[in-house]
């Protein structure tokens, strides 16, 4: 066992004995998600020394990396072999790590088409709240049977265990890509997306945003060259062939588009997760139109904190949920987002899982629940 891993295990065991909380961090690029870094209780435990690619088999589409490995390093390696992480993990600042990517469970614009982070996790190595080193899953899909603990770690924010190593499924970079633009309002954009969703189109990502009072829908197509060309001809719209189009999608992924960066003072950034078939929501008076992603399933809203109850009620009416993503007056490095279980039953499940993996309650207390 390498020294960095041994130190982590010793720290956890000591903290469990003392009932001393630990604040688990990688690059710190998502400190805004959940309680802010300045408010987050616990002694810091930096996972960045635990870094490196353990194994990579391009022909098998599998890579295994330690948790502190920089995400940029992993993606650069995959790019050398024409491969990628299809779910496009967002970066809100430089320095993100592989472990943080899995712990956060956040996905980019292609999420609705290709799946989420958890869908690509084949296996994990974790240190639980007792200081035990555990392995779940493996490096092939058939190793996953019964209760899939590996994927349970995606989006758990380190509350169930410290991810020290992860095996991921990767995919080849699609051979062709094109972006189309349509000038339309939100309701028309949602209607387009619903109709296209029922057709065999290589629809990969979408983004509707109102710019200067004019609604614009951007659709990204990815796949075989023949399929992308045929879709461009049948869907219409205006082909976007400027060199900066890929960077625009990255800006959408990382929340660097003008819609995000020009947030009104005193307004928070809310994340509404709703069914793709949900209609345009009647937002409270004074709240600007949302930015819509994931073919209608993800709607970003800028609104004052006191509108939270109204937004949650709107999302619930269509079978969705709303959460505070970035607090009012805060930036992506020092916000204080709020999370919680959607029901008492789900909260009870969370608590039982927490008790099983971390009975002393020392791992990232308050980070999620």
Automatic annotation (TrEMBL):
<keyword id="KW-0285">Flavoprotein</keyword>
<dbReference type="GO" id="GO:0016491">
    <property type="term" value="F:oxidoreductase activity"/>
</dbReference>
<feature type="region of interest" description="Disordered">
    <location>
        <begin position="19"/>
        <end position="44"/>
    </location>
</feature>
<feature type="domain" description="FAD-binding PCMH-type">
    <location>
        <begin position="1"/>
        <end position="173"/>
    </location>
</feature>
<protein>
    <submittedName>
        <fullName>Glycolate oxidase subunit GlcE</fullName>
    </submittedName>
</protein>
<dbReference type="InterPro" id="IPR016171">
    <property type="entry name" value="Vanillyl_alc_oxidase_C-sub2"/>
</dbReference>
<keyword id="KW-0274">FAD</keyword>
<dbReference type="InterPro" id="IPR016169">
    <property type="entry name" value="FAD-bd_PCMH_sub2"/>
</dbReference>
<dbReference type="InterPro" id="IPR006094">
    <property type="entry name" value="Oxid_FAD_bind_N"/>
</dbReference>
<dbReference type="GO" id="GO:0071949">
    <property type="term" value="F:FAD binding"/>
</dbReference>
<keyword id="KW-0560">Oxidoreductase</keyword>
<dbReference type="Pfam" id="PF01565">
    <property type="entry name" value="FAD_binding_4"/>
</dbReference>
<dbReference type="InterPro" id="IPR036318">
    <property type="entry name" value="FAD-bd_PCMH-like_sf"/>
</dbReference>
<dbReference type="InterPro" id="IPR004113">
    <property type="entry name" value="FAD-bd_oxidored_4_C"/>
</dbReference>
<dbReference type="Pfam" id="PF02913">
    <property type="entry name" value="FAD-oxidase_C"/>
</dbReference>
<dbReference type="InterPro" id="IPR016164">
    <property type="entry name" value="FAD-linked_Oxase-like_C"/>
</dbReference>
<dbReference type="InterPro" id="IPR016166">
    <property type="entry name" value="FAD-bd_PCMH"/>
</dbReference>
């Amino acid at each position: 066992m390498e020294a960095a891993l041994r130190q982590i295990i010793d720290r956890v065991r000591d903290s469990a004995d003392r009932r001393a909380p630990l604040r688990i961090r990688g690059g710190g690029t998502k400190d805004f998600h959940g309680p802010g870094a300045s408010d987050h209780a616990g002694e810091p435990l930096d996972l960045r020394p635990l870094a490196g690619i353990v194994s990579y088999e391009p022909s098998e589409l599998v890579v295994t990396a330690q948790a502190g490995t920089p995400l940029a390093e992993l993606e650069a390696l995959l790019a050398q072999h024409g491969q990628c992480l299809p779910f496009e993990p967002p970066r809100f600042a430089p320095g993100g790590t592989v472990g943080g990517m899995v712990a956060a469970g956040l996905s980019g614009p292609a999420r609705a088409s290709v799946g989420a982070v958890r869908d690509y996790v084949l296996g994990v190595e974790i240190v639980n709240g007792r200081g035990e080193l555990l392995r779940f899953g493996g490096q092939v899909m058939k190793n996953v049977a019964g209760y899939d603990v590996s994927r349970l770690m995606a989006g758990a924010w380190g509350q169930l265990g410290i991810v020290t190593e992860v095996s991921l499924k990767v995919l080849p970079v699609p051979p062709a890509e094109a972006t189309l633009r349509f000038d339309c309002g939100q309701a028309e954009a949602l209607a387009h997306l619903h109709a296209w969703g029922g057709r065999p189109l290589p629809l990969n990502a979408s983004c509707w945003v109102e710019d200067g009072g004019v609604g614009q829908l951007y659709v990204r197509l990815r796949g075989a060259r023949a399929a992308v060309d045929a879709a461009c001809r049948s869907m219409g719209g205006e082909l976007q062939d400027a060199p900066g189009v890929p960077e625009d999608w990255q800006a959408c992924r990382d929340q660097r588009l003008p819609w995000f960066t020009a947030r009104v003072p005193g307004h928070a950034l809310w994340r509404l997760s709703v069914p793709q078939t949900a209609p345009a929501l009647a937002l409270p008076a004074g709240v600007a139109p949302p930015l819509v992603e994931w073919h209608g399933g993800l709607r970003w809203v800028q609104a004052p904190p006191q509108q939270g109850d109204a937004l949650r009620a709107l999302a619930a009416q269509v079978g969705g949920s709303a959460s505070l993503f970035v607090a009012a007056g805060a930036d992506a490095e020092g916000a204080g987002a709020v999370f919680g279980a959607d029901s008492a039953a789900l909260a009870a499940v969370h608590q039982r899982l927490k008790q099983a993996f971390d009975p002393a309650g020392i791992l990232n207390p308050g980070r999620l629940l």
